[in-house]
Design brief:
mainly beta, 15-stranded antiparallel β-sheet, about 10% helix, about 45% strand
């Protein structure tokens, strides 16, 4: 996988056409019954909305939104969350680099793994459309072209990886410890890795939060000079939502900051004045 554009890079670091009801039912009928893992941690729920502002240098470059809903149909007899992530450029940035991104993932409520993934992005004229089916019972991923890939149990997509990461218990994490999430990205099995950097207080949009700091383990040399050039601060609470992500790129800096939230499972770690 190669990071091609700045907006995608910072969105994935901080974090990343819908299926019809008939498609959902069909998949539910044909998927074999089997036992799946159960994740005890509940870090998100239907009704959660997270909103972000993205900056490129001093330019207010765009906005992003993540929303969790409960799917009204079951897949393989299991309850599923439908998560939609959208991003768009705005203002002056929109004039020369128009971004209109939409990501969807259909996450198993109890297992925190995806059944389906949809990606429809347009970034400066560069367009990608992906439609993946995750046959978790067969440990395979099937692409929109009908190609099948062997995949490990519980394989994630680029958006569900973010939600799965929120279920991880970091309470005993040591500085420098690396957490790996195996994901299927751009027709490849890809190890998404994050390195724990300790706890800090961080100011975001005028508010101060208790946070855990991470450095995504990324490919250097193309967009970033070193791994420490990208930092992500996660709320130090049961929600574990990204508060701030920022990175130094070859030609400036990028930043994504939380601007709004609702429907969290627990109080956020904001420090009262």
């Amino acid at each position: 996988m190669k990071t091609k554009h700045i907006i995608s890079a910072i969105a994935i670091a901080g974090l990343f056409s819908a299926f019809s009801a008939q498609q959902q039912i069909a998949i539910g009928q044909t998927t074999e019954k089997t036992e799946f893992r159960k994740i005890e941690s509940e870090a998100y729920k239907p009704g959660e909305v997270l909103e972000y502002r993205l900056h490129y240098g001093v330019i207010n470059a765009g906005t992003a939104r993540l929303e969790v809903n409960k799917l009204d149909k079951k897949i393989a007899g299991r309850e599923v969350y439908h998560v939609v992530g959208t991003g768009k450029s705005k203002g002056a940035f929109d004039w020369f680099f128009k971004v209109r991104d939409r990501y969807e993932t259909f996450i198993d409520k109890d297992g925190a793994f995806p059944w389906m993934f949809v990606r429809d992005v347009n970034e400066g004229g560069y367009k990608i459309k992906q439609n993946y089916t995750f046959a978790q019972n067969k440990q395979k991923v099937i692409t929109q072209d009908g190609n099948e890939f062997e995949a490990p149990e519980g394989i994630q997509d680029m958006l569900s990886s973010f939600y799965y990461a929120r279920t991880i218990d970091f309470s005993n994490a040591k500085k420098g410890e690396i957490f790996t999430i195996w994901s299927f990205v751009d027709d490849e099995i890809w190890p998404l890795k994050i390195r724990y950097a300790g706890k800090e207080k961080v100011e975001v949009s005028g508010d101060t939060y208790n946070a855990m700091k991470f450095h995504p383990v990324i490919q250097t040399g193309r967009l970033f000079k070193s791994e420490d050039d990208v930092s992500v601060w996660i709320s130090d609470d049961a929600n574990k939502i990204p508060l701030l992500a920022q990175g130094k790129v070859m030609v400036g800096s990028v930043k994504m900051e939380l601007t709004g939230y609702k429907g969290l499972v627990a109080p956020i770690s904001k420090i009262d004045d």
